[in-house]
Structure formats: structure tokens, C-alpha cells
Amino acid sequence: MRPFLPKRYEHLAFGFMLSCLMSLMVSGFATLMALGITAEFPLHWLKAWLPSWAMAFPVVLVVAPFVRRTIARITIQP
């Protein structure tokens, strides 16, 4: 795949993808634990995931720089 996004938007793309995937997996697991596998599972999962993602995206954008700085301080640079 050819790059198409300017480098200045990298932090937004990172936050978008991370929040999307993490909230999708966590909401799916929580929904599975609460309901089990049922015919309604996909709909309940989607209803749980969308608000979770809407909250996770801005949180990741705010928290990611702090986490990167913290990790840079506790790891040894080559």
C-alpha cells in the first residue's frame, strides 16, 4: 500500500487505529462475558463498541504523548 497521509497527521492516525482496535476487542470481550454467544451478540457488541470508541479516541490522543515520554524515560536508548 502506498502512503497517502501527510506525516503531520501520524498522531491522529495512530490514535484512530489504536482506539478503534482496542475498544473493539475490549467491548467484544466484555459483551461476550456478559451475554455469551447469542443471536443478539453482534448487535449488542456494536452498541457497546461505538460509544466506547467515541470515548477512547480522544483519550488516546491525550494520553499517548504522556505514555511515549514515560516509556522513553524508563528504557535504555541504544
Note down, in words, how this protein is organized:
It contains 2 helices and no strands. With 78 residues, it is an all-alpha fold. The protein has one domain. The radius of gyration is 16 Å and the shape is elongated. The mean pLDDT is 93.
Concise account of the structure shown:
The chain is mainly α.
Strand and helix layout:
Layout: H1 10-35, H2 41-74
Helix pairs in contact: 1-2
Protein name: DUF2798 domain-containing protein
Pfam families: DUF2798
Transmembrane segments: 12-37, 49-67
Give the end-to-end Cα distance, rounded to a whole number of Å: 30 Å
Structural classification: mainly alpha
Number of structural domains: 1
Q: What amount of the residues lies in strands?
A: under 5%
Give the number of helices.
Answer: 2
> Helices and strands, in N-to-C order?
HH
Keywords: Membrane, Transmembrane, Transmembrane helix
Protein name: DUF2798 domain-containing protein
InterPro entries: DUF2798
Organism: Rhizobium alvei
Defining key terms:
single chain; 78 residues; mainly alpha; 2 helices; 0% strand; elongated
